Amino acid sequence: MIDLHWLYGLAGAVFGGFAIGSARDATNKKRVGNAAFWGLIAISFWFGDSLGDIGNGVLVLALVGIAGAHLLGKGHLQSTTLAERESFSERYGNRLFLPALIIPFTAFVGTLAFNYTPLKDSGLIDPKSVTLVLLGLGVIMALITCHAWLKPAATAPIEEGRRLMDSIGWAAALPQMLAALGAVFAAAGVGTTIGALAGAIIPEGSVFLAVLLYALGMVVFTMIMGNAFAAFPVMVAGVGVPILIEHDHGNPAVVGAVGMLAGFCGTLMTPMAANFNIVPAALLELKSQYGVIKAQVPTAIPLLIANILIVYFGAFR
Amino acid sequence: MSYWPLIGIALVVIGFALRFNPLLVVAVAAIVTGLLGGMDFLKVLGTLGHGFNENRYVTIIYIVLPVIGLLERYGLQQRARTLITQMRGATTGRLLILYLVFRQIFAALGLTSVAGQAQTVRPLVAPMAVAAAEKQHGELDEHTSDRVKSMAAATDNVGLFFGEDIFLAIASILLIQGSLAGFGIHLTPFQLSVWAIPTAICAFVIHGARLLWFDRQLGKRGR
């Protein structure tokens, strides 16, 4: 069965390629750091399951050491100039979009084909990781198409990918790192403590204040942890179930669903959600790494208010 | 109950405010929290390593970078700009509203990785949004062009976050279902995802209105 581990193999190869490309990039003064960082991620993808927990922990510390000591840099190799790109764009025309669309198209058609044909029961692909497997398949097909059509040098995809990867830098590892932090927090009982604290400071009798605290708790904890998934079980255990659902008889579906969405408003406002907020700032070469967050706050705040009202009026009719 | 492990949360906030590298802040917070929570160092290290290894799928998305980078080498961004300048009536706001609709609907169908910051925003949506603004208002200074690009990235996030929960089998819906089931409250994914619809509509209205307003702001800038 094709499952996530196939994809980990592919990802390991890509990051391994980034590491080798980094090591050879003479325009990057910190190339050793880059090579080590991407190399460790390749090792994690390939051998993570056989390293053991402590081994993985040491790998994490090594990644942190490289990033913390500012050993990551950026090369300034320019593959084609702006003028060359303009002329390529003229020459290939709108057909250039086709390889880029192969990835979403594979995901779309593939998901439909998987869900509505006997493929689902054939055991070929693990149903839990269909989307990601199809993403990987799309990447491979797009690369084959590009090579057949544009005939770039064999190392070109890795070189170009590395250029983008270096501009993202350490932020690429932050979401996975926060997930690991969540695991430690859970083991140390941080969630239960916060839930108990939140539950204790809610005044008796005011449903609206309880809703407000529940939603704001989701937002604040989401902003600290970088994603709503870590905040949700805590706020549900501390406020959602004992107060909103059991004490005030709120509709559990509304409390659950909209509580999570209130947390998503927090995700829009925190640099900890690096993959959504910091990585794009790097990818788009913005001057301020907080540019995307600034653009999101004026949507997030009114939407949070809307969510609070939806819980208040939707769950307590 | 011990309140000591909460210091870890304070460390995250303080470390970030003092502009230490976030990876470093997170690692220190994890280790301090674990030690204060009564684990020994090796146990903390193991928990951290295990959590990191179990969540590798979060980092998989970067395998698209070689394709995107390669196409950029052959002028993909330039092509996206040309396409927009040939379209009549295209403005930054309208373009991004169209993208918002597309992103929300596809996310609601469970097709979350069809688009994204690396897959679509950097190579297509952001250059198109900038080209539309330049076509209408002339050359943009760096600050304004950064604002347009930020808006493109923001639109992708808003569309994804407030579309995906309408889909039944998305991770967040399953997490809600699982968390409530732990308290003996049993809901179907459908009961939950229906309640994602009002927020999805609010998100579209609020962000869509901002995008139209953004068009007007861009227009005023030049005068």
Give an account of the 3D structure.
The complex is a heterodimer of chains A (317) and B (223). By secondary structure, chain A is an all-alpha fold. Chain A has two domains: 4-173, no CATH class; 189-315. Helices cover 77% and strands 0% of the residues of chain A. The longest helix of chain A has 38 residues, at 31-68. In chain A, helix 1 packs across helix 2 (31-68) and helix 10 packs across helix 12 (252-267). With 223 residues, chain B is mainly alpha-helical. Chain B folds into two domains: 4-54, no CATH class; 62-221. Helix content of chain B is 73%, strand content 0%. Chain B contains eleven helices and no strands. In chain B, helix 6 packs antiparallel against helix 7 (117-137). Chain B is globular. The termini of chain B are far apart. The chains are: A mainly alpha (317), B mainly alpha (223).
In short:
Chain A has 317 residues and is mostly helical. Helices cover 77% and strands 0% of the residues of chain A. The chains are: A mainly alpha (317), B mainly alpha (223).
Features:
heterodimer, A: 317 residues, mainly alpha, 77% helix, B: 11 helices, 73% helix
Mean pLDDT of chain A: 90
Radius of gyration of chain A: 23 Å
The oligomeric state is: heterodimer
Largest sheet of chain A: none
The most extensive interface, with participating residues per chain, is: A-B, 144 and 122 residues
**Main sheet summary of chain B:** none
In terms of DSSP E residues, the strand content of chain B is under 5%
Distance separating the two termini of chain A: 48 Å
Which percent band covers the strand fraction of chain A?
under 5%
Q: What is the number of helices of chain B?
A: 11
* Overall tally of domains of chain A: 2
The CA-CA distance between the termini of chain B, in Å, is: 62 Å
Structural category of chain B: mainly alpha
